[in-house]
Amino acid sequence: AAAYHGHIRAVKLLLRHHADINCSRESALGFGSALHSAAVEGHLEIVEALLAGGADIDLVCGIRGTALQAAAKGGHIQLIKYMLQKGA
User: Fold this and answer.
1) What is the pTM of this model?
2) How many domains are there within the chain?
3) 30-52: buried (b, 16+ CB within 10 Å) or exposed (e) per residue?
4) Rounded Cα distance, 64 and 52, in Å
5) How far is residue 29's CA from residue 3's CA, in Å, rounded to a whole number?
6) What is the pLDDT of residues 60-84, one digit of tens each?
């Protein structure tokens, strides 16, 4: 939920405490991993932090696809460009 809602401080705290950021459980919001949640909402700063913390940029979450696809669906051009530069 922190990634989806753009709470960077909470995301960084979770990263410091070694949270499983590649967990792709379907949540109440339905976006899979933290990276997918941030991407669908266009939270570039959070995507940067998650990737720096080891998030799998190529993780596929069921029918939702990859985080890049989630960003594209949301029309988040800056985020799409960033993720492509990072190898998505």
Assistant:
1) 0.89
2) 1
3) ebbbbbbbbbbbbbbebbebbbe
4) 23
5) 11
6) 887 778 999 999 999 999 999 999 9
Q: What is the CA radius of gyration of the chain?
A: 11
We report the CATH number of the domain holding residue 17 as 1.25.40.20
Residues 6+ apart with CB under 8 A from 58: 66, 88
C-alpha 32/C-alpha 49 separation (Å) is 17
Q: Which helix (H) or strand (E) holds 88?
A: none
Q: Tell me 28's DSSP state.
A: S
Three-state SS string over 45-84 comes to HHHHHHHHCCCCCCCCCHHHCCHHHHHHHHCCHHHHHHHH
Domain range for 25 is: 2-85
pLDDT digits (tens, 9 = 90+) for 35-56: 999 999 999 999 999 999 999 9
